Amino acid sequence: MRKIQGQVIQDGWNTSPSGTFMFKVTKRLKALKPLLRRLRASYGRITERVHFLKGVRRDPISAGWGPFKC
Questions:
Q1: Taking the alpha carbons of 18, 20, 34, 7 in that order, is the dihedral positive or negative?
Q2: With bands split at pLDDT 50, 70 and 90, how would you rate the model's confidence at 19?
Q3: pTM for the predicted model, two decimal places
Q4: What percentage of the chain exceeds 70 in pLDDT?
Q5: How far apart are CA 2 and CA 5, in angstroms?
Q6: In the chain, which ranges are continuous DSSP H helix?
Q7: Is the pLDDT of residue 47 over 90?
């Protein structure tokens, strides 16, 4: 998966707009935006997973991750 992520970023960054340096950076970032959105969407329900894991981290005993499993 990491190779695919790097390839997505590299493909988006390899566009060659003309203009000043900051204009080029802005255009490249705009080209990356839809690619990164698709990559983020491929993970699916990431917000729900983060909230779940934060809850588990706060109370690992009730989540069944305690030192004593009964």
A1: positive
A2: very high
A3: 0.51
A4: 73
A5: 5
A6: 2-13, 21-43, 46-58
A7: no
Q: Give the confidence band of 64 by pLDDT, cuts at 50, 70, 90.
A: low
b (16+ CB within 10 A) / e for 25-56: eeeeeeebeeeeeeeeeeeeeeeeeeeeeeee
CA distance 52 to 46: 10
Distance CA 11, CA 8 (A): 5
Q: Classify the phi-psi angles of 17: left when phi > 0, otherwise alpha if psi is within -120 to 50, otherwise beta.
A: beta
